[in-house]
């Protein structure tokens, strides 16, 4: 509901001495009188409810005071900061100005009670924390205009995201630790949520599946590389799919940190593979070198034994020839 109050002495009827102190006029009467021509300059779209007729009224008091009331539907921008999503808050602002008249003709001032809530506002995703009003005077090329502003602050209800993503994933991680102590089976009834299935759960499975390569044989290099690279590509695809559903912002979100650490985990599995393969290659080279060295030593030993045997045989033959000559 939007209300305006202004004074127009030309419409005063107290001097007529009628019984009524105020008169309620139809909405079409508004076109026949002077109005302050107030507009919401930052609105994307606005309309007056019609159910079944236009929801407006004008009351004229005996001193020429007019009270105009509208039932408006306004779509205006809100400032969002997703750094702490889903624990963030947003600020929505409505800016009022007289479109046709500057301060020489119209002054815009807030009432003593500028905003009144008839009942508590209930929104699916946000809680209304409060509001504040402001008044400014802006200078344009053709004069000075009054500007009245009201800012509403909403806090996001994070219970949905807490129970649909953070809490289930925490239970899943903690339950995986139970296997370190004993064999136990837990049965969970999963609460399905958009962010759980689009980000946290798929990326967790991708990272865990990349660890399967730790149990492969060291010589299965191709299988381990294929698993690591496939996990990295799958995580990149999942990250891109999540980003399509979020606004493009220049700062790091909590979800970005989750994705970055998931990529780092998979990257280190590939680093571990490279280190293990290098150590295995050095071990094979050491074993091959030991075999070659042993073969060379055997050849040297056989050669020396052959030379020593030849010398001994020659010595015996010389002795035999010497005895035969005698």
From TrEMBL:
GO terms for cellular component: plasma membrane. Its main location: membrane. InterPro entries: GABAA/Glycine_rcpt, Neur_chan_lig-bd, Neur_chan_lig-bd_sf, Neur_channel, Neuro-gated_channel_TM_sf, Neuro_actylchol_rec, Neurotrans-gated_channel_TM, Neurotransmitter_ion_chnl_CS. It holds the Pfam family Neur_chan_LBD. Residues 200-288 form the Neurotransmitter-gated ion-channel transmembrane domain. Residues 2-157 form the Neurotransmitter-gated ion-channel ligand-binding domain. It is a multi-pass membrane protein. The keyword Transmembrane helix applies. Keywords: Cell membrane, Ion channel, Ion transport, Membrane, Signal, Transmembrane, Transmembrane helix, Transport. GO terms for molecular function: extracellular ligand-gated monoatomic ion channel activity; transmembrane signaling receptor activity. The chain crosses the membrane at residues 158-182, 194-216, 222-243, 255-276. It is found in: Cell membrane; Membrane. Belongs to the ligand-gated ion channel (TC 1.A.9) family. This is Neurotransmitter-gated ion-channel ligand-binding domain-containing protein. It comes from Ascaris lumbricoides (Giant roundworm).
